[in-house]
Amino acid sequence: MTFELVFSEEALSALKNLDNETAKRIIEKLEEASVNPAHFFKRLAGREEYKLRIGDYRVLARLFISEKKIFVLSLGHRKNVYKRK
């Protein structure tokens, strides 16, 4: 059973600002990861978030295993995405 993908406003905004090819790659990878998130997502050290690598881009998300949801917090280039707000 696949997990439901839920996007934050920040993630949707970042996705819209990317070029179409990159955005498509990210969406396809998220759909692939929604089947078995434990295989694709890695936990960030000292944080509750998980990361998904897609080339030079990263998706930061929270996994809710019992609810079968992946909440995408943010996404972007690897040099910028980890900075805390």
Please compute the radius of gyration using only Cα atoms: 12 Å
- Overall 3D form: globular
Q: Which CATH architecture would you pick?
A: 2-Layer Sandwich
Distance between the termini: 34 Å
Number of helices: 3
- Helical content class: 25-40%
- State the order of secondary-structure elements, H for helix, E for strand: EHHHEEEE
Give structural notes:
This protein has about 80 residues and is an alpha+beta fold. It is about 30% helix and about 35% strand. It has helices spanning about 10-15, 20-35, 35-40; strands at about 5, 40-45, 50-55, 55-65, 70-75. A 5-stranded mixed sheet has the order 1-5-4-3-2.
Question: Which key features would you list for this structure?
Answer:
85 residues, alpha+beta, YaeB-like fold, 5-stranded mixed β-sheet, 32% helix
